[in-house]
Design goal:
The complex is a heterodimer of chains A (122) and B (81). By secondary structure, chain A is α+β, with helices and mostly antiparallel strands. Helix content of chain A is 34%, strand content 36%. In chain A, strand 6 (96-102) and strand 7 form a beta hairpin. Chain B is 30% helix and 23% strand. Chain B has a five-stranded mixed beta sheet. Chain B is an alpha+beta fold and 81 residues long. Chain B has a single domain (2-75), classed as Ubiquitin-like (UB roll), CATH 3.10.20. The chains are: A alpha+beta (122), B alpha+beta (81). The A-B interface holds A 9, 25, 27, 29-30, 33, 55, 66-67, 87, 90-99, 108-111, 115-116 and B 4, 6-8, 54, 57-59, 73, 75-81.
């Protein structure tokens, strides 16, 4: 191996600065299948060593780590690109849903067009 | 078959999972049956462009056939990462 890339996502506070809890729901069973499939697709597409995908669920606070991906490869370009690919697919093809809970109430986070657009480059 | 609901679909319908006996041949036909049941289903399924569906834990289209299917899930677009 010549390269290891890791990416860690962290719960960001919302613009108003009063996020109390980020609650993450998922679909047990499909989640594991979807993550395994996304990792296998990355393995097929790039010359990689190992691939790791971790995604948390339940109640998280601003600043908490929410997910991470790690890729190892003989060359850095494969490791970088595969990590970005994994991230892009986790955003909109793995069955997780985020809910922001503030003092004013709870809001399900809307999917973003740019996250869907990000898949097109692959 | 088992029908599962997640996120705001679960909240609008008021339950996470139910057993449904149906002769519907496609996901869309099942949705029509559910919508005809009660207003909470009508509200949850009002805009299909805002919904995604998984058939036996694989993302699918609303015209997917239901023959032999054990589990259907309805949910909003996913927001992981």
């Amino acid at each position: 191996m010549g390269a290891i890339v890791t990416f860690t996502g962290v719960v960001r506070d919302i613009a108003s600065g009063n996020l109390d809890v980020m609650e993450i729901e998922h679909y047990p069973g499909m989640t594991e299948a979807a993550l395994t499939k996304i990792a296998a697709q990355a393995q097929e597409r790039w010359a990689l060593g190992d691939v790791l995908v971790i995604h948390r669920f339940g109640r998280l606070s601003p600043g908490d780590q929410i997910m991470m991906v790690a890729t190892s490869a003989p060359h850095r370009l494969d490791a970088f690109e595969a990590a970005q690919y994994l991230m892009d697919y986790l955003k909109s093809r793995a069955p997780f849903w985020k809910k922001e809970i503030t003092k004013d109430g709870a809001i399900w986070v809307d999917a973003k067009d740019e996250d869907e657009d990000a898949l097109k480059r692959w | 078959m088992d029908v599962l609901y997640f996120a705001w679909v679960r909240e609008r319908i008021g339950l996470p999972k139910e057993r449904v006996e149906t002769k519907a041949e496609t996901v869309a036909a099942l949705v029509d049956e559910l919508r005809a049941r009660e207003e909470r289903y009508e509200v949850a399924f009002a805009d299909l462009s805002a919904l995604r569906v998984a058939v036996d834990q694989e993302l699918a289209d609303f015209d997917a056939p239901l023959a032999g299917v054990r589990e259907i899930a309805f949910f909003p677009p996913m927001t992981g990462g």
